[in-house]
Amino acid sequence: MTEQTTEQQEKSYRELHRPASEFDTRSDYLDHELQIMKPRRFGLNLPGRDFNFEWEDLVPAIAGTIGIIAMYSAVMMSWAEGLTQAWDHIQLGKEFAIEVSRVEMLLPALFFCVIASGFVNPRANLAGNHGPMIPLIGAIALAGAHPLALAILLGVFGLLLSYFKGGSRLVNLTGNGVAGGLLVFLGFSGAMSQIGNIQNWATGIVPDGGAAGDMGYVGLVVLAAVIVLYALLARLGKRWLAIPACATAGLVIALALGAGFDLKFETEMGLPNLNPVYWWGSTTEGWMLGLPNLQHFLASLPFAILAVAMWSPDFLGHRIFQELNYPKGTEKVLMDVDDTMTMCSIRQMVGTALGGGNITSSWGTYMIPAAIAKRPIPGGAILLGLLTMTVAILGSPMDVAVWPPVMRVALLVGVFLPLLEAGVQMIQDEKDAQAAGICVFAAAVTNPVLAWALTMLLDNNGLIGDKNRPSKLSKLDRIIIPASVLIICFAAMLAVGMLESKWGIPALL
């Protein structure tokens, strides 16, 4: 056994590779592929020499593509609605959201899916979408934040955390109760928002010769079918299929019930505007915001802190999912949390500077099906990048992706229900329940950012939750870091008037 292990360590992937026909089962072949891979970290990894393409790579590639189209579209629609509401001179709608989504799906997909995770560092998971931040985008826009300022801050914080290996520290600072409460609040509020949006869409349909409200039942039927399908997938252990299966079901059911005339194919084949100056150069083109100023950075600061703080549990969860599905002896192909954080940080700044608006995190809708399909990162990453770029150029699939019974359903089953479930699972006992309850209450009174900072400070000092938790933490982790985060968040919110709507405190700047 020792000689065999030594032989595997010395020989290359190409030398150890054996055809699938030599194995008893397909699963055995896939296990062997994972065990013999030796990915080069920040080197050149080539198909055939360092990895192979398998048909199983299509599973995460297709699931990730559907998920990211819906999520990118939802992010950009949220930015469009929030900025239009926040600024008098801005009018942004569906056309803007689709064009910005196409920008995000072209160059960033090429650089960070195909090149970065496919060829340069297959241990870095793809940089995708930060699902938990989607319900906050409206609040971010109303707070006076700027997408480019948010991206710069988020990227800088992420690079610093990656350099100092700070991911595990942030995981320890946010206890299970606080994290669970935050996820429950975001998941529940987001799910209710998507359900309401589906119903508003259905009741707003005006059929030929009919009136608004005549087709309100369409939304109810779509939601009922999605609930049954999602429950069935969960029962069968196939929740990784939730996004493509439920989104397709929403599309088919809505068309079958006669809502198809509401689906408009308006996006033409071609390329979006890839000139960053168009998107950020003035207040009359692109985002219509111009370049960010100091107030924009102050307004973006608390949200950037929260986004990066929520990265670590997200990244670690994806790695653990690999560990649960991969066989023994596959440590070399598991995603590296710090490398993934580095790639996400760079992708956040580069993608937004090119004109995008995505808030980046580890790509869960890719990693979860990839882990279940027993595939490493690179093959599926390359296929996903190519699929995403193809869809962006074709254009018309984007119109389908932003149609409410597709986009809202994908967000519901791909982001908010998993968030809600994960939050409930993290609440394991009475102590966690207490911390989670206070976090949810604080989020309802203020907002999720301030609630997270406040309850983290209280939890780490034993004032809520586990009374023995302070003894496990250093003074730095217990007081200095949580208190500093709370002060920074509160000061930034106070400065930009984020507390005015609920507390009546006007902006100081």
TrEMBL record:
The keyword Magnesium does not apply. This is DUF3360 family protein. It comes from the Bacteria. InterPro entries: DUF3360 (IPR021794). It comes from Ferrimonas lipolytica. Keywords: Membrane, Transmembrane, Transmembrane helix. The keyword Transcription does not apply. The chain crosses the membrane at residues 58-79, 133-161, 173-195, 215-233, 240-261, 294-312, 377-394, 406-424, 436-458, 478-499.
